[in-house]
Amino acid sequence: MSKLQKVKASSRHLDNGLEMIALFCLLISVFGAIISVFLRYVFGISLQIVEEICRYTIIYGVFAYIGPLIKRNAHLKMDLLKNLLKGKMKYLNNLVISVILFASFIFLLWSSIIWTKSLFDMQITTVAGTMLMFIPALAIPMGMFLGCLYSMLQIVIDFLSFKQSQKLEETTSIDSGLN
């Protein structure tokens, strides 16, 4: 197994765990919505906390799934330039994009920690007034931390791919020089 394959396989269990967490959050939201509709239209009871839980579990699920999306290269990026580049420039472009993505996640992590701490310090509650706002806001620093972790992993993968492409080009140029 090459270094590149080992690095890609290193987070397989974490990927599966985060995928299960995202799916679990989605299921909680769906079942909560069904229960909320049933309570509202059958018994005439409207529980605001159930609606908030539905809303915030989706947010937690989305932020939990940031990392695996980065690893699958399914995050937002510009493919136009990538499609025009060939050879090692294509791999170098991927590496630069990954470094920019990592720097962005670092900044967003730092900002979200400060924002979440300020929500906690001010004791702001959600719209319904049933829970402190920092609880749903914690999804953002958690997601940004996972984004940092996975974008760092992507930098390593892109660097190893770039090195592998250089070796392949050298081998190809040596072979063509012999013919």
TrEMBL record:
<keyword id="KW-1133">Transmembrane helix</keyword>
<feature type="transmembrane region" description="Helical">
    <location>
        <begin position="91"/>
        <end position="113"/>
    </location>
</feature>
<keyword id="KW-0813">Transport</keyword>
<dbReference type="GO" id="GO:0022857">
    <property type="term" value="F:transmembrane transporter activity"/>
</dbReference>
<dbReference type="InterPro" id="IPR007387">
    <property type="entry name" value="TRAP_DctQ"/>
</dbReference>
<keyword id="KW-0997">Cell inner membrane</keyword>
<feature type="transmembrane region" description="Helical">
    <location>
        <begin position="53"/>
        <end position="70"/>
    </location>
</feature>
<feature type="transmembrane region" description="Helical">
    <location>
        <begin position="133"/>
        <end position="157"/>
    </location>
</feature>
<dbReference type="InterPro" id="IPR055348">
    <property type="entry name" value="DctQ"/>
</dbReference>
<comment type="similarity">
    <text>Belongs to the TRAP transporter small permease family.</text>
</comment>
<keyword id="KW-0472">Membrane</keyword>
<keyword id="KW-0812">Transmembrane</keyword>
<feature type="transmembrane region" description="Helical">
    <location>
        <begin position="21"/>
        <end position="41"/>
    </location>
</feature>
<feature type="domain" description="Tripartite ATP-independent periplasmic transporters DctQ component">
    <location>
        <begin position="34"/>
        <end position="156"/>
    </location>
</feature>
<dbReference type="Pfam" id="PF04290">
    <property type="entry name" value="DctQ"/>
</dbReference>
<protein>
    <submittedName>
        <fullName>TRAP transporter small permease subunit</fullName>
    </submittedName>
</protein>
<dbReference type="GO" id="GO:0005886">
    <property type="term" value="C:plasma membrane"/>
</dbReference>
<keyword id="KW-1003">Cell membrane</keyword>
<dbReference type="GO" id="GO:0015740">
    <property type="term" value="P:C4-dicarboxylate transport"/>
</dbReference>
